[in-house]
Amino acid sequence: MKYLKYISFSAVLLLSGCSSFLKEYSQDTDYVNSWKDLNETLIGDCYLNGYLANSISQCLDNQYFIHFLGDELVESTDSYNNLDMAYDGKEKVFGLYTWQARSGQNDTYTGYNVENANWTQCYKYINVANNILYSLKTVPQNTKDEKLGNLKVDGEARFLRAYYYFWLVNLYAKPYVSSSASTDLGVPIKISEKVEDKKFQRNTIQEVYNLILSDLTIAETDLEQYGAQPSIFRADVSAVRFLLSRVYLYMQNWSKAAEYAQDVIDAHPSLLPLNTLKKGSAFLSSSSVETIFSMGGNSMPSFTSYEYKSFKISDDVYNLYSDNDLRKTYFIWHNGNFNGYTKLAVAGINLTIPEQDPSYYLNAYSNPWKFNQAEVSDKFLFRSAEAYLTKAEAEAYLGNEDQARSLINTLRSFRYAPGTDYQVTATGEDLVKLIRDERERELCLEGQRWFDLRRYGVCEKYPESKRIVHPYYYYVNRNSTVKTKCCIFVLQPNDWGYTLPIPQNVIDFNGMPNNERGNRTYTVTQL
Asked: Exposed, middle or buried, 481 (CB in 10 Å: 0-12/13-18/19+)?
């Protein structure tokens, strides 16, 4: 269809540079004949459709960088074979992994890597959604099919626009605090399809959240009327309510968060009993009884590679699981000092290597998943388990501790070995801390931890900001396995590094203010 090609080409052309992140392309509505045309555009140009990438440079274009910011991943120096070399991608995420003043900072402090790809990509999808919503006003709405089709496209476009703005404001602005949200700077809002010859400034966090809630409220009405979607890769009313529960949780509107989480649980109550899952099969999949919505790719097995210059799941995360918790072995492959990600299925072909063999992870997960498409995302994924966690946390803050414990115990009953004691009896702050730990165990490397750490720091009930330590190793040269020194970087509680910088090119072009920055110091250990 000419229209689809026209939109795709124009969006890429005009959004390739950081300075034009909000520039609109001119849309010729002669190419739009019905809601079906816009529905195809929605699929091809607005949903985040990602394949498993085999390099970090590719992954950065699809928001994978979020995993390097928190406490889930640390650099690994383990390798079953010193001749095997991982990708050199760790140098490209140095500025993020070590919380530099500019996220594109290279590891030699001689320049900067690309740092605007994720910002630009999100605004690209927002621009497509804006034009789809505008074009909907011009298509026929006479028959029942046309009316339902318009509701479908309108609802999905608003859901996606809200999702991308929610993503942006929680990366490039402070966490939501009701007392200051109306003055704290968020991200620029652009919802018009028109070309505007102006420089954009940052809207407040409250204004961005108001837009998100407005879009999701309309989307909820639209998609409830439309009905079921053909697959989990298209947003339905449950996906909208799921996102609403997450938004209200971040806003500390506990009653609304609990209400929408319960709506999701009512529609999707099922949880997967880990003791029935065959070892090596996928915990995360499109066919799982827990999966509600997903888009994008999943490259975690490639990042947690049992090779030099790669990353591993931190020991702090691994040690959070008790030995009776089946997630410890179903989510993580542990060998010596290495912890690998195993929420996806074994992808090795004709794999006969014993799981205890040091080469198992590379052959079963890391190498084969570099060239395969993952069914579900590692960050844009809605699962029923998260709805249980959201409602439990909200009820605990509201003082409804019996409900909170019941929800957590229900989830844990599907995660622990049969016959073991998984019951939670904690109260007060201990209960909240347990729920937060349960989120970390359950949602490991699903794109939630960095956002959780940020919002815990400003939480009205039991605020908690964590000190995170990241080691970064230097080698004799790019092709060497011989380490020369280790630099230790620390993110202190309530550090300015908990909020990402606005990309420098965006600041330079628009003149908008940056977030608070400082100098990131480190200690050195010679090796």
From this structure: middle
Q: What is the domain range of residue 252? A: 2-51+116-267
Domain membership flag for residue 147: yes
Measured CA to CA, the distance from residue 151 to residue 486 in angstroms comes to: 55
SS (H, E, C) 454-513: HHHHCCCCCCCCCCEEEEEEEECCCCCCCEEEEEEEEECCCCHHHCCCCCHHHHHHHCCC
- Residue 151 lies inside a defined structural domain of this protein: yes
**End-to-end Cα distance, the chain:** 60
At 86 the pLDDT is: 53
Domain count within the chain: 1
Half-sphere exposure of 247 (CA within 13 A, CB side): 28
Residue 316 has pLDDT above 80, yes or no: yes
CA 11, 15, 20, 21 dihedral sign is: positive
> Which residue in 39, 5, 379 sits closest to 230, CA to CA?
39
Distance of CA 308 to the CA centre of its chain: 26
Helix (H, G, I), strand (E, B) or coil at 158: helix
CA-CA distance, 427 to 425, in Å (whole number)?
A: 7
Helix (H) or strand (E) holding 339: strand 338-341
pLDDT at 163: 97
- In this prediction, residue 46 carries a pLDDT of 81
194 near 24, Cβ under 8 Å?
yes
Domain presence at residue 393: no
CATH number of domain containing 205 = 1.25.40.390
- Residue identified by tokens 């993580």 is 332
Rounded distance, CA 395 to CA 407, Å? 10
Write out pLDDT tens, residues 201-251: 999 999 999 999 999 999 999 999 999 999 999 999 999 999 999 999 999
Quick check: is 216 in a domain? yes
- Contacts of residue 495, defined as CB under 8 A and 6 or more positions apart, other chains included, come to 99
What is the 8-class DSSP label of residue 383? E
Residues 6+ away with beta carbon under 8 Å from 54: 87, 302, 370, 371
| Secondary structure E strands in 343-495 | 381-383, 468-475, 483-491
Quick count: other Cβ atoms within 10 Å of Cβ 337? 10
Structure confidence by residue, pLDDT tens digits, 124-150: 999 999 999 999 999 999 999 999 999
Report pLDDT for 53.
33
Q: Which of 26, 19, 25 has its CA nearest to residue 199?
A: 19
What residues does 526 pair with on adjacent strands?
A: 485
CA distances from 349 to 112, 298, 355, 367, 525 (A): 39, 19, 14, 11, 41
**pTM strictly above 0.85:** yes
